[in-house]
């Protein structure tokens, strides 16, 4: 494989990949363990003609990102749990107004100020349901520095193409871990759909025939349209309750639902004949993979699977992966969040067990192995 | 209203939702005339608002318009102005929106001196939620959430913006239509953060509960209780005490506008220049 070899941190890889994806605007607020993303971009963005601003708070950062995106910029912010909670109202705004944006949440131990420098995976449900009301959202979670690079670019592509907020759910381990990575020479970059109609005929929230995503004009390009967090008609103007409101909510949610199949990204090893599969995500997937290989080496029929897409949850893909297993074990650094989706996906198919750790330490391969052996005995 | 200014309105979005006698339409009219007088390009002007009665104005205006979340208009506007500094960005907000939930954004937008013109429609009350006291409600006023009279001391928003570092601060009322239009025109010409506090009557929720009479009575009250800043030095103190000071209140000189400072930073960064 060719490409530049670098030794970098997950947070730095996120910043580098964002610029590669076309990021031209970042607004943020300092918070551990995400701060290196802001620091990297404060240094890098001005040198490529982009804009960095440290806003007065987390809410303002999210608002500035949406404002910048409306002018046509690819825009991102980065935070951690407490800040992620503060951004939620405006994330919902972006979902309803269909404004592309990428929000990085480097998870730390919560709730509240919690253990600010310790890793956790406790924001799985907040990432999906943090803002009020039904809404579309896509959530990606990498396990390595290289995957952070790849998923950051993918996050922008999904966000721009579907006009939906995309959450990049890192954890403190992946964010602060340093690894050698080979920067891919070629990456695919997508842009948002733009209008082909002249300003007088433009309906900002009317999808083109055969599409469910409306083309997006940039503010300042003469389209003179209205954007609101109220339910709105295809013209963008506020509407009241009724069929049009329901149609809007269903359309924006179905944008993501219809694309479940293309939003599947899994890594699977030794699952064909496995009686037990360790299924994980984020940094925990690294320990899960090591544990599964160690157990395989000792003759146990144990498989490994991980998902890089948390939401929409890859239920169909998991059913196929686990078709022959009697147990799926889900280790995660929380009290059992993604395991609830695994249970829903595998209902009546096999036994689903949670393995939790919430003391602020990562889950080790050893402890997963011990738990697997208990289950198998 | 001239045909040209009619073109600044979205006919399909009218009639507006404001109550009979509300002053907000008057302020909007002043803003539209000021936009014309300042010669703004309709396609290069973005109007941003928060939540509340005043913030509904963006929907009626034939520009790129953004009706945001409660209190956050200035933060959204900061993103727009920074990402595309060639655009003229105007924020419409109210006293609750700008001074309570959005107070921090007001302070910091002023501190940065970012090139945004903010018009605060100050009617002393939360009208959209039918009459709760706001940070600008005069002490002792009745509201649905101050049935025994408000004990809070109101903010002087204009002084706040001046102290925080804004480049231009002015105040007028809906009685002073010509003055308000001229002050907004001046604000739009300023290269930096400009703030116009437009005192507006709410006969429905503030006036009725506080026995201020009809909308016309409230306009007359504005007339009788305001003093032009230019006349201040000529009047005895007892005639100034408790009065609303209207006119241009503050104008900074030699303050650098934020997006211009940022462009200079970009040039230094590209050239590898560090302090």
Oligomer: heterodimer
Overall pLDDT of chain A: 97
Can you give the helix content of chain A as a percent range?
25-40%
What is the number of E strands of chain B?
Answer: 10
Measured distance between first and last alpha carbons of chain B: 54 Å
The CATH superfamily of the largest domain in chain A appears as: Thiamin diphosphate (ThDP)-binding fold, Pyr/PP domains
**What's the end-to-end separation of chain A, in Å?**
43 Å
Q: What is the C-alpha radius of gyration of chain B, as a whole number of Å?
A: 19 Å
Q: Which strands sit side by side, in order, in the main sheet of chain B?
A: 2-1-3-4-8-7-10-9
Question: In words, what does this structure look like?
Answer:
The complex is a heterodimer of chains A (377) and B (275). Chain A has 377 residues and is an alpha/beta fold. Chain A has 12 helices and 16 strands. Chain B is an alpha/beta fold and 275 residues long. Chain B has a single domain (3-270), classed as Rossmann fold (3-Layer(aba) Sandwich), CATH 3.40.50.970. In chain B, the strands form 2 sheets. Chain B has an 8-stranded mixed beta sheet with strand order 2-1-3-4-8-7-10-9, sandwiched between helices. In chain B, helix 3 (57-60) links the parallel strand 1 and strand 2 (64-67). In chain B, helix 2 (24-37) crosses helix 8 and helix 6 crosses helix 7. The mean pLDDT of chain B is 97. At the A-B interface, strand 2, helix 3, helix 4 and strand 10 of A face strand 2, helix 4, helix 6 and helix 12 of B.
């Amino acid at each position: 494989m060719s490409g530049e070899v670098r030794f970098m941190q997950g947070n730095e890889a996120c910043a580098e990949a964002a610029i590669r994806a076309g990021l031209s605007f970042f607004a943020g607020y300092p918070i551990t363990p995400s701060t290196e993303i802001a620091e990297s971009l404060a240094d890098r963005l001005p040198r490529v003609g982009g804009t960095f601003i440290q806003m007065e708070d987390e809410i303002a950062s999210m608002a500035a990102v949406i404002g910048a995106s409306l002018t046509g910029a690819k825009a991102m912010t980065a935070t951690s749990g407490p800040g992620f909670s503060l951004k939620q109202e405006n994330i919902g705004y972006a979902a309803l107004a269909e404004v592309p944006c990428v929000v990085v949440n480097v998870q730390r131990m919560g709730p509240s100020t919690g253990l600010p420098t310790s890793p956790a995976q406790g924001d799985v449900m907040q990432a999906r349901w943090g803002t009020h009301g039904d809404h579309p959202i896509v959530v990606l979670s990498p396990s390595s520095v290289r995957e952070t690079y790849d998923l950051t670019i993918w996050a922008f592509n999904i966000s721009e193409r579907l006009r939906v907020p995309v959450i990049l759910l890192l954890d403190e381990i992946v964010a602060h871990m340093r690894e050698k990575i080979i920067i891919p020479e070629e990456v695919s970059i997508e842009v948002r759909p733009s209008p082909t109609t002249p300003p007088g005929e433009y309906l900002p929230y009317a999808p083109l025939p055969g599409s469910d995503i409306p083309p997006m004009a940039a503010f300042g390009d003469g389209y003179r349209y209205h954007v609101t967090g109220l339910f709105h008609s295809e013209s963008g103007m506020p509407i009241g309750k009724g069929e049009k409101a329901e149609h809007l909510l269903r359309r924006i949610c179905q944008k993501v639902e219809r694309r479940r199949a293309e939003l599947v990204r899994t890594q699977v090893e030794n699952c064909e004949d496995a009686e037990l599969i360790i299924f994980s995500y984020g940094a925990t997937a690294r320990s899960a993979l090591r544990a599964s290989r160690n157990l395989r080496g000792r003759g146990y029929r144990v498989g490994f699977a991980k998902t890089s897409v948390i939401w929409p949850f890859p239920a169909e893909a998991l059913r196929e992966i686990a078709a022959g297993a009697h147990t799926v074990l889900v280790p995660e650094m929380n009290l059992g969040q993604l395991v609830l989706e695994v249970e829903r996906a595998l209902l009546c198919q096999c036994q689903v067990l949670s393995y939790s750790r919430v003391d602020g330490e990562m889950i080790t391969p050893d402890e997963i192995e011990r738990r697997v052996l208990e289950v198998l005995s | 209203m001239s045909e040209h200014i009619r073109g600044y309105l979205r006919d399909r979005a009218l009639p507006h939702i404001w109550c009979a006698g509300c002053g907000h339409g008057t302020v909007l009219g002043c803003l539209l005339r000021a936009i014309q007088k300042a010669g703004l390009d309709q396609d290069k002007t973005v109007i941003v608002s928060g939540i509340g009665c005043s913030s509904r104005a963006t929907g009626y205006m034939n520009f790129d318009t953004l009706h945001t979340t409660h209190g956050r208009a200035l933060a959204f506007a900061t993103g727009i102005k920074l990402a595309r500094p060639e655009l003229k960005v105007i924020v419409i907000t109210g006293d609750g929106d700008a001074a309570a939930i959005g107070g921090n954004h007001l302070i910091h937008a002023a501190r940065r001196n970012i090139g945004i013109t903010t018009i605060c429609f100050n009617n002393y009350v939360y009208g959209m939620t039918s009459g709760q006291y706001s940070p600008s409600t005069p002490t002792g006023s009745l509201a649905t959430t101050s049935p025994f009279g408000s004990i809070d001391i109101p903010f002087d928003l204009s002084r706040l913006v001046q102290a925080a570092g804004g480049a231009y601060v002015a105040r007028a009322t809906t009685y002073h239509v010509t003055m308000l239009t001229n002050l907004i025109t001046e604000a739009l010409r300023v290269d930096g953060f400009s703030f116009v506090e437009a005192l507006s009557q709410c006969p429905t929720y503030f006036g009725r509960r506080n026995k201020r009479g009809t909308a016309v009575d409230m306009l007359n009250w504005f007339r009788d209780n305001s003093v032009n800043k230019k006349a201040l030095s000529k009047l005895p103190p007892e005639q100034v005490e408790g009065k609303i000071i209207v006119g241009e209140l503050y104008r900074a000189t030699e303050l650098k506008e934020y997006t211009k400072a940022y462009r200079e930073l970009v040039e230094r960064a590209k050239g590898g220049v560090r302090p």
